[in-house]
Every structure is written in structure tokens, then in C-alpha cells.
């Protein structure tokens, strides 16, 4: 199992309740219905207010490295990336278990 963790920090001037952030979240939330390689999926805006915290968190699971790689290039995933790119900065990491 591969656990894929993504942290997103909204860019200055982009609010959590902005149309762009809400649309990106809705698209992110819908990915498990569109990408068959996804096994587990939790995403949403950070609920801990702290200046050091990131604004959005995704924790997802994939059966294998190959499944994760297929997700990375899946057209539906790329559409979601295109929504987040102009409004946020990204950090991610993967764990194998």
C-alpha cells in the first residue's frame, strides 16, 4: 500500500471560502468516483488554525507504486491539479507500507 499525502497552501489573496477554492475542493472530493486506482481518500480544509499550518490536506491510498503512477497521469487528476495550481503551493510525500 502506498499512502500519498498532499498539503496545499493557498496563495495570498485566495480565501478558503473563495469560489476557486470551493471549486477545487469539490473536484478533489469527486476524484475517487473517477479514478479507479484510488483505494482510500480523505481531503478537506485544515481545521487547526495556526500560521504554520497548511490550508488543505489530502491523505490517499493506492495498492501499489504502479497504481499511484497511473493516478498521477490520469486525466481527471490532471484537471484537479489545473484548478489548484493557480491558487496554491503544494508539498507532498509518499509512504510505503
From TrEMBL:
Record's signal peptide: none
Q: Where is the Stress-response A/B barrel domain?
A: 2-97
Which named protein is this? Dabb family protein
Top-rank taxon: Bacteria
In terms of SUPFAM superfamilies, this protein maps to: Dimeric alpha+beta barrel
Question: Where, by residue number, does the polypeptide cross the bilayer?
Answer: none
InterPro entries to which the protein is assigned, alphabetical: Dabb, Dimeric_a/b-barrel
Q: Which Pfam families match?
A: Dabb (PF07876)
Amino acid at each position: 500500500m502506498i499512502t500519498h499525502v498532499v498539503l496545499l497552501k493557498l496563495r495570498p489573496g485566495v480565501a478558503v471560502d473563495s469560489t476557486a477554492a470551493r471549486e477545487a475542493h469539490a473536484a478533489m472530493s469527486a476524484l475517487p468516483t473517477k479514478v479507479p486506482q484510488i483505494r482510500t481518500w480523505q481531503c478537506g480544509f485544515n481545521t487547526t488554525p495556526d500560521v504554520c499550518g497548511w490550508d488543505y490536506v489530502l491523505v490517499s491510498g493506492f495498492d501499489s507504486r504502479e497504481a499511484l503512477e497511473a493516478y498521477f497521469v490520469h486525466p481527471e487528476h490532471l484537471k484537479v491539479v489545473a484548478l489548484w495550481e493557480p491558487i496554491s503551493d503544494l508539498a507532498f510525500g509518499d509512504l510505503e507500507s
